[in-house]
Automatic annotation (TrEMBL), chains A, B:
<keyword id="KW-0169">Cobalamin biosynthesis</keyword>
<dbReference type="Pfam" id="PF12557">
    <property type="entry name" value="Co_AT_N"/>
</dbReference>
<protein>
    <recommendedName>
        <fullName>Corrinoid adenosyltransferase</fullName>
        <ecNumber>2.5.1.17</ecNumber>
    </recommendedName>
</protein>
<keyword id="KW-0808">Transferase</keyword>
<keyword id="KW-0547">Nucleotide-binding</keyword>
<comment type="function">
    <text>Required for both de novo synthesis of the corrin ring for the assimilation of exogenous corrinoids. Participates in the adenosylation of a variety of incomplete and complete corrinoids.</text>
</comment>
<dbReference type="Pfam" id="PF02572">
    <property type="entry name" value="CobA_CobO_BtuR"/>
</dbReference>
<dbReference type="GO" id="GO:0005737">
    <property type="term" value="C:cytoplasm"/>
</dbReference>
<keyword id="KW-0963">Cytoplasm</keyword>
<dbReference type="GO" id="GO:0005524">
    <property type="term" value="F:ATP binding"/>
</dbReference>
<feature type="domain" description="Cob(I)alamin adenosyltransferase N-terminal">
    <location>
        <begin position="5"/>
        <end position="27"/>
    </location>
</feature>
<keyword id="KW-0067">ATP-binding</keyword>
<dbReference type="InterPro" id="IPR027417">
    <property type="entry name" value="P-loop_NTPase"/>
</dbReference>
<dbReference type="InterPro" id="IPR025826">
    <property type="entry name" value="Co_AT_N_dom"/>
</dbReference>
<comment type="similarity">
    <text>Belongs to the Cob(I)alamin adenosyltransferase family.</text>
</comment>
<dbReference type="GO" id="GO:0008817">
    <property type="term" value="F:corrinoid adenosyltransferase activity"/>
</dbReference>
<comment type="pathway">
    <text>Cofactor biosynthesis; adenosylcobalamin biosynthesis; adenosylcobalamin from cob(II)yrinate a,c-diamide: step 2/7.</text>
</comment>
């Protein structure tokens, strides 16, 4: 058991009292409520995983969640199976083709991206849905499968009570400019570099 | 509908064939399977959310998940309620006290961190559990509530089939050195700066 002296305890208390005052003032200064456009990008792990974590949070509050996968090859079998536990509270559409290097067919990729985007628009229009996850939409935008300007416009025109999360590397600047919250997942260390393979429950 | 010319389609195909060869070789080169020590750190959003997304993935594969919250004030009510849907597949312990600036009581914080760590050790010892989330453990380590060396040693001595995720800002170097996968969540843009308050389904 760590020993804490009275002096140390008093110093800690004084420091934390100050910190609490700052914290409280900061929380009180925020007043706006709005549906957020969230972008999870960067080369690190956790972009989609954090989006699905947010789905969990939203479901915990009883709201419905919609998911459109723009790249079917992105392994989300674990999440999909787990979310099926929530029944019709989750609408999941695996719409895209595989990764671009799997299909090697540009026309098919473009058609799949357009169908996925149509599904995304339908989910965003459904007032029962509180969160829409557009998984790997950034990939479809990066390869110009979709019209960037049109996509950003539609995202900006979303309902006030709808949160949207867009995931994928290399988010386009026009998208991050329109977003309320942008997180860059940076890769500090990755187990693939140490020869560890993709494992059930971690990568898929 | 986006028009794709034959030349464009052929060029795309050739590029993607090359890319697929590189990708396949890379996947084939990874052979190790092991329980990972994962650290989600950095000032951005998504550290805990990605950990809970991983829980979802693990549950989708039918494995049990254990969660220890080292800071009770961290709002995870949404996730907790949603994960309760999975019954005894999830063991959740909200063990810590509030944020340090809420309690202002160093002795109480230390005692709470030690109790939380004891619970973490028990979960890590349970062979039925495939993933243990040590939420905000980095905060307890940062304030020296726990013995860093002892914690890292125990994490390194984990079972071969156990994945552990540690979350929280300011991960200690000794911990990231011991980790297999470290992701730094970087804050590019945050809606709090625009006066938006913490909202149900997003922050908690």
């Amino acid at each position: 058991m760590k020993q804490v002296s009275e002096t140390e305890a008093a110093r800690h208390r004084a420091k934390m009292e100050k910190r609490k005052a700052v914290q409280d003032a900061e929380v009180a200064s925020k007043k706006i409520e709005k549906g957020l456009l969230i972008v999870n990008t960067g080369p690190g792990k956790g972009k989609s995983t954090a989006a699905f974590g947010l789905a969990l949070r939203m479901l915990g509050h009883g709201r419905k969640v919609g998911v459109v996968q723009f790249v079917k090859g992105a392994w989300h079998t674990g999440e999909k199976d787990a979310l099926s536990t929530f029944g019709d509270k989750v609408e999941w559409y695996a719409m895209g083709e595989g990764f671009t290097w799997e299909t090697q067919d540009l026309k098919r990729d473009v058609a799949a991206a357009e169908a996925a985007w149509a599904k995304a628009e339908a989910l965003m229009a459904d007032p029962e849905i509180g969160l829409v996850i557009l998984d790997e939409l950034n990939i479809a935008l990066r390869y110009d499968y979709l019209d960037l300007e049109k996509v950003v416009e539609t995202l900006q025109a979303r309902r006030d009570d709808l949160h949207v999360v867009v995931t994928g590397r290399n988010a386009k600047p026009a998208l991050t400019e329109a977003a309320d919250l942008v997180t860059e997942m940076g890769q500090v260390k990755h187990h693939f570099a140490a020869g560890v393979k993709a494992q059930k429950g971690i990568e898929f």
